[in-house]
Amino acid sequence: MPAIRSTRRQRYAFVALTLPLLAISACGYGSKAEDEGDTTSPVAQGKAIDGLDEVRIGYFANVTHGTALVGLGKNGLIQKELAGTQIKSQVFNAGPAEIEALNSGAIDIGWIGPSPSINGYTKSQGKSLRIISGSASGGVSLVVNPKKIKSLDDLEGKTIATPQLGNTQDVALLNYLAEKGHKVDATSGKGDVNIARTDNKITPIAFKNGDIDAAWVPEPTASKLVADGGKVLLDERELWKDGKFVITNIIVRQEFLEQHPKVVEAVLRGSVNTNAWIAKNPDEAKKAINEVLDEATGKPLPADILDPAFENTDFLDDPLAATLRDEAQHAVKAGLLKDPLLDGIYDLRPLNKVLSAAGKPSVDDAGLGAK
């Protein structure tokens, strides 16, 4: 099927921004936070760090944001490091909405994907945010209807969904198709392979209805499609050196980093401790993730979706900075990004301080660090 019917397009599609600096910014500006806070976070105890009563933190209700889901939930490892500084968390459904919240001062720190991080930094001319840590790698797959697509040579004429115009998965698919010789207009998604920008919540419905033939999507959407009869034709990890690429990192408002470095370090200690705990306690980690997903979305994931989604995602501290630079270049080649400003996007000094204190090796900013 060449495209989703116009009536369904009105329900599914996002409005494309026409600014030369980024169709990548059309990851969902104007979308609202799911909730002003969640009730799973523990209560602050002890003395507030730097005299700060609260720190406002954003994240997505996605398995690829598992560090935040676990560390900010009942597990409490991040709150433990913050002592008397209370976490106020906010769940978002789109990266640009989280960037807007960060820019307006509505949140201080956020778990977010690489594309909105690049866009937010570039649009502000390097003044809005810094990436201060990694969080997750992987967790993205091309899932197909096996009755319609038997191999990667069968993509021509098919319709493939991505979450949003210019988001991380959309850029990855555009780059992959271009490397395979397919011609697709990046903005419209039309070409010898058609791309349908579809909300992750809608993608499983579109897949069942036959409106799309495949989807390049993050977890848990990929595993939801597999549970509905789809087949993983390509795990994106196969396209990257050592099977690693950034899917989630941690950002901070530059002003907040300057004014409250001890609070930022505390959040990073909590994140590092959470990733270590997840590695040692995978079954408990999955349960903790599902508790927050239930709280945030009103529906936990069944085991046949949660288990593979968790297995497909690697939780780590390294921001994999070199892969972010590559992802930015993929967006440039696709025509979605022009002259990205990346110098200074990272400030890994607080993270490396935390890692050193924990006896762990430091991580690299690929030459993109703040001076």
What characterizes the major β-sheet?
A: 6 strands, mixed
End-to-end distance: 51 Å
In N-to-C order, the SSE pattern is: HEHHEHEHEEEHEHEHEEHHHHEHH
Strand content: 15-25%
Looking at the chains present, what oligomeric state does this protein adopt? Answer: single chain
**What would you call the shape?**
globular
Give structural notes.
- With 371 residues, the chain is an alpha/beta fold.
- The protein is built from 14 helices and 11 strands.
- It has helices at residues 6-12, 66-71, 77-82, 95-104, 114-123, 168-179, 203-209, 221-227, 254-259, 261-280, 282-297, 303-311, 321-334, 349-357; strands spanning 54-60, 86-92, 109-112, 129-138, 140-144, 159-162, 194-197, 214-218, 231-235, 246-253, 313-315.
- The strands form 2 sheets. The chain has a 6-stranded mixed β-sheet.
- Strand 6 (159-162), helix 6 and strand 7 (194-197) form a beta-alpha-beta unit.
- Helix 4 (95-104) packs across helix 5 (114-123) and helix 8 (221-227) crosses helix 12 (303-311).
- The longest helix is centred in the C-terminal third of the chain and has 20 residues, at 261-280.
- The model is unreliable at 1-39 (pLDDT under 50).
Features:
371 residues, six-stranded mixed sheet, 14 helices, disordered N terminus
